[in-house]
Amino acid sequence: MKLKNRFKDEDKIRYWVDHPYCVICKSNQGCALHHIDSTVSASIYNSVMLCDRHHREADTHNTDSPLSREYRAKLRNISYEIIEKVGRIRTKEDEDYLKKYAQK
User: Fold this and answer.
1) What pLDDT band is residue 5 in, cutting at 50, 70 and 90?
2) What's 39-51 look like in SS3?
3) What is the pLDDT of residues 48-74, one digit of tens each?
4) pTM of the shown model
5) Please, which residues have CB within 8 angstroms of residue 33's CB and are 6 or more apart in sequence?
6) Any idea where the domains of the chain sit in the sequence?
């Protein structure tokens, strides 16, 4: 299966190469980037590194329930802090994503 809105390779390397571990449990086993808000955007702000277990858990939070919104907000905040720490010149896609999702 090929995902739409894949993250750019240079973004993945720049922001996640120094964080090759799950942002929740710090495991470095079976980690991969997760689309926080599904594939609505390829903005790197829509990404977070998760282990297999937490990736599966995050996939269950793709609903509009209060618990799911809270869980995704937590992941967005973690991602935002990591990306801002490294530094980023935001693209229009980043700005559009953050405007729509950052406050939810």
Assistant:
1) low
2) CCCCCHHHEEEEC
3) 999 999 999 999 988 889 999 999 999
4) 0.88
5) 7, 12, 16, 47, 48, 49, 50
6) 9-101
